[in-house]
């Protein structure tokens, strides 16, 4: 793992980079047949970044390598008429995490998750949630972090982490 990676809060001038991060967060089971970026226009997907930073429950940390964002973890409560895939209730922020492909499986995602979990605890949240496809290799990380499956269907897990 690269030791010169800084985990820090996203700057307002960097919020636009969440669009790339959101696309990277989408599980791509077939590298030869990628899901098109137009998926980001689907309201249930766009809800993870639309107007990010304008709500009190928007929190984002980035992995910075030599002044370049290589990954991000962000949470928000997605509770309007469009709910997030990991929606639990109007007080539970949902996790989204991603790294550019060349930085995956190096422990950076674990560092991002640990820092965000600490941040959420300090901020007084009782729990956090996420939705993940069962085939996604990141499922192992979520179990390691203490997330538990509370609901599932054929393809996805809805997971929750108690923060207290």
Q: Please, could you describe this protein's structure?
A:
The protein has 164 residues and is α+β, with helices and mostly antiparallel strands. It has four helices and seven strands; from the N terminus they run βααβββαβαββ. Strands 1-2-3-4 form a four-stranded antiparallel sheet, with helices on both faces. A three-stranded antiparallel sheet has the order 5-7-6, with helices on one face. The radius of gyration is 15 Å and the shape is globular. The termini are far apart. The model has no long low-confidence stretch (mean pLDDT 94).
Distance between the termini: 30 Å
> How many beta strands in the DSSP annotation?
7
The proportion of residues forming helix, as a percent range, comes to 10-25%
Order of helices and strands: EHHEEEHEHEE
Q: How would you classify the helix and strand content by structural class?
A: alpha+beta
Strand neighbour order, sheet with most strands: 1-2-3-4
- Report the mean per-residue pLDDT as an integer: 94
Radius of gyration, in angstroms, nearest whole number? 15 Å
Largest sheet: 4 strands, antiparallel
Shape: globular
Task: Describe the structure using short key phrases.
single chain; 164 residues; alpha+beta; four-stranded antiparallel sheet; three-stranded antiparallel sheet; 4 helices
């Amino acid at each position: 793992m690269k030791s010169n990676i800084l985990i820090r809060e996203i700057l307002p001038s960097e919020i636009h980079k969440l669009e790339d991060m959101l696309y990277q967060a989408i599980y791509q089971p077939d590298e030869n047949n990628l899901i098109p970026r137009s998926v980001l226009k689907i309201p249930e997907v766009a809800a993870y970044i639309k107007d990010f930073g304008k709500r009190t429950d928007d929190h984002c940390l980035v992995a910075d390598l030599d002044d370049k964002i290589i990954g991000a973890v962000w949470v928000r409560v997605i509770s309007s008429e469009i709910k997030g895939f990991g929606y639990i209730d109007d007080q539970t922020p949902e996790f989204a995490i991603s790294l550019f492909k060349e930085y995956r499986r190096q422990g950076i995602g674990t560092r991002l998750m640990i820092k965000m979990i600490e941040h959420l605890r300090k901020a007084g949240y009782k729990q956090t949630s996420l939705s993940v496809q069962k085939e996604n290799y990141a499922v192992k990380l979520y179990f390691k972090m203490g997330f538990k499956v509370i609901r599932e269907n054929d393809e996805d897990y809805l997971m929750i982490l108690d923060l207290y």
